[in-house]
Every structure is written in C-alpha cells, then in structure tokens.
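Need residues for this backbone.
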C-alpha cells in the first residue's frame, strides 16, 4: 500500500532528475539483501518499542525485504529478494515463528539466469495473497512480476508490460487487494526512446481472471507511483510524484471512484522537490501520505507528511531527527493513529532506521534498532488495530560495504 541496486534507496542520495535518468540502470542491477539465523517469537516489549528479529533460511547470502503485510497476528507476509543474481524471497509469520516459504522464480530451470525481486505483498485471506515486483530479461529489459498464494504455494500469474517494442522498463512496486476478484498494482515504466518521454506511472488491475493495464492521469514529463491505499472497490488512492514544467518534482495523488482515475492536488510545501513514497487509509475517509522534500543542495532532504480529511490536504510536521530524513512506509492503527518508517542520517553521517508515530495530533519518533553500526533503512510497515506492527528494510554491512542483509523489526 514502492534507487540503486538495493531496496528502495533513499532519494536524498541524488537529485530527483538524476534519479529518473538512472532508474532503469539502477533497477536492472537488482542486488539483494538478507538476514541470517533462524527467527523465533520476539520477547514481550512495551507497545511503543521496536525490536529486531532475524529472517529465516537466508544464511549469509545477499538479501533484502521490501514489503510487508500483516492481515492478523498469525498471518504476516514479508517479501524481497535474495542472492546474486537476485531471486524472489518470501517469509511468513504464523504467530509463533517466521518461516521462509518457497517463491516462484521466473528463471528457475532456465539456462539464462536473470534477476527477480518482489517489492510488496497484500493478503485478502489466509488462502489468497498477491506479491508484485520485477524481473530482468536476457535483452536487459525489466518486466512486471506478479505472484499469487492459493493457501498452498506461490505461483507466477501473467501480468502485462508496456509494449516491449516501446518500453525498456516495466516494474510494479505496490499492490492492494480489495477482494479475490479486485486487486490493484502500481509502479512505473520507461520508454526505449528519449523521444517518447522519460517514463510514466503504471497501473494494473486484477478482475478475478487476468491482470490488465488501466489508463490513469499522466501529469508532467515523468510520473512515478510509489504508494497505494485501497478502502473499497470504489475508493482507492495511489500516490507518488511527477516532474513539472520546471523539471522539479511535485507530490501527486490519484483517486479511483469505481469508474476512472482522477488526479488530485496535494499541497506542495516550500521545497524545490516534493514526493509521496507511501499512503495509507485513515478512519473517517481520511488518508496519511508520507515522503520527502528535497531542496537541490540548498538544504538537506526532509521528511514530508500530508493528511487528507475527505475535503482538503494538510501538511504535517514530522520529526526531523537527523541531517537527512525520509519516510518510505506508513500504516494506520487504532482510531486515528499511524506509524511511518524510513531512514535518517545521524551526526556521524551514517544512515539509521527511523520510525515515527502519529497520535492524531503530532508525530513522535519511536526508538527503532539498526543493524549495529551498519547503514540501515526501513522501506515498509504494516500494523494491526492494536498497534502491533512489523517493518522491513535492509542494511549495508559496515565491515563489507559491498554486501547487505535484510532488516525485520516488530513492535509490541
């Protein structure tokens, strides 16, 4: 309900225009992240505390977790990638322990070994879940990847790309399932020829039988969809950013009313570049969107939050604990609270995990562990009504900068 060769790289490492130019090359590398050692249930902690747990079945291999979905306290999925070349990685929490579940690999048994990764997951029931991502082809193009869980195994389901004759990259970042016959996936595609522009947001829909591309608004010279929030079949929101006429990025939201997608107009705070990286439904028809604001070297990247009350957007004031701060995932809980996760840069210049809680009035930083002294970031979060939550991400090993490991945190 989202870059270099790792999980969603914090965008403060480059200007957004440079990010666009490097997107296809960066995504094609598809390096993975990981965690080692078997995982067991976390010790009991206070409800505002985050603890780190280990992934399972990954050993000392490259790996990362990019997306997480908690349907119940005994049915939580986390997805990402593992190995080099990378392959899809799926882990499941059954209420007492994490278990690695076999993921379908589009290149299994083939002479050509391509890279594939899963970026998000959403479950309708214990026997019905979707995961999306991307896979590289022998020609170097990137294609959409969709997998489905039927209660017994994960299988690849055909998903459309933009025409291979015109596109070099088609990737899905987030997925939201309303029912077994109604699911949406979003991402981005870029054309092969510069004369065709530099890329557009990609929206796909599952009608119970097949996935198909659905036309949406195309503002600016480039648009990128990173977040999705599905409240019902006639109330779905996606969020991201687009390049305006001045070449700067503006935060973007689109709404599906059951018939068509329409462009919305969130506020653009006083920054050169604004972007939404995630969005979540809030009680009473509201929304919470999170992302980042970038000033092109005039000032560092800062976290961005905006809330929608059903009639208007309001810019929030999230905590800015480090010299650089970005929010990449958000989830609602309780009667009007939310959790947001991302990355912040400490006084020594090292990236650390970041978690913040919205209590309906203000944002407060919650202590979240990183992987020792290793640069660490969180990319997604999912929460139950009780406030229990799970967050995922990755860490670059401080003693081996060319290697990474997944991060998996739990709250309460």
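Answer:
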């Amino acid at each position: 309900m989202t870059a270099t060769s790792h999980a969603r790289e914090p965008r403060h490492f480059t200007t957004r225009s440079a990010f666009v130019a490097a997107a296809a090359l960066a995504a094609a590398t598809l390096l993975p992240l990981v965690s080692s050692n078997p995982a067991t249930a976390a010790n009991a902690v206070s409800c505002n505390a985050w603890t780190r747990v280990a992934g399972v079945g990954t050993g000392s291999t490259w790996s990362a977790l990019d997306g997480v979905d908690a349907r119940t306290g005994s049915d939580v999925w986390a997805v990402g990638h593992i190995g080099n070349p990378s392959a899809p990685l799926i882990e499941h929490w059954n209420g007492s322990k994490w278990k690695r579940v076999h993921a379908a690999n589009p290149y299994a048994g083939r002479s050509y070994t391509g890279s594939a990764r899963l970026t998000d997951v959403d479950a309708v029931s214990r026997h019905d879940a979707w995961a999306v991502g991307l896979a590289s082809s022998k020609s170097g193009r990137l294609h959409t990847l969709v997998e489905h869980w039927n209660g017994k195994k994960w299988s690849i389901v055909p998903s459309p790309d933009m025409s291979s004759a015109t596109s070099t990259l088609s990737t899905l970042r987030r997925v939201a399932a309303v029912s077994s016959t109604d699911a949406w996936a979003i991402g981005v595609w870029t054309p092969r020829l510069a004369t065709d522009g530099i890329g557009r947001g990609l929206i796909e829909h599952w009608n119970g039988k097949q996935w198909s591309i659905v036309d949406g608004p195309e503002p600016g010279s480039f648009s990128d969809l990173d977040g999705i929030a599905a409240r019902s079949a006639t109330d779905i929101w996606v969020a991201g950013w687009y390049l305006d006429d001045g070449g700067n990025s503006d935060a973007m939201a689109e709404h599906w009313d059951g018939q068509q997608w329409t462009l919305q107009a969130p506020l653009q705070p006083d920054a050169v570049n604004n972007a939404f990286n995630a969005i979540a439904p809030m009680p009473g028809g509201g929304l919470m969107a999170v992302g980042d604001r970038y000033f092109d070297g005039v000032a560092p990247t800062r976290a961005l939050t905006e809330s929608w009350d059903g009639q208007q957007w309001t810019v929030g004031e999230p905590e800015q604990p480090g010299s650089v701060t970005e929010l990449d995932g958000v989830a609602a809980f309780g009667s009007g609270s939310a959790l947001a996760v991302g990355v912040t840069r400490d006084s020594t210049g090292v990236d650390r995990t970041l978690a913040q809680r919205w209590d309906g009035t203000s944002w407060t930083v919650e202590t979240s562990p990183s992987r020792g002294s290793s640069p660490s970031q969180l990319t997604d979060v999912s929460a139950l009504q009780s406030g229990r939550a799970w967050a995922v991400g990755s860490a670059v090993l401080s003693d081996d900068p060319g290697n990474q490991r997944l991060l998996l945190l739990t709250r309460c």
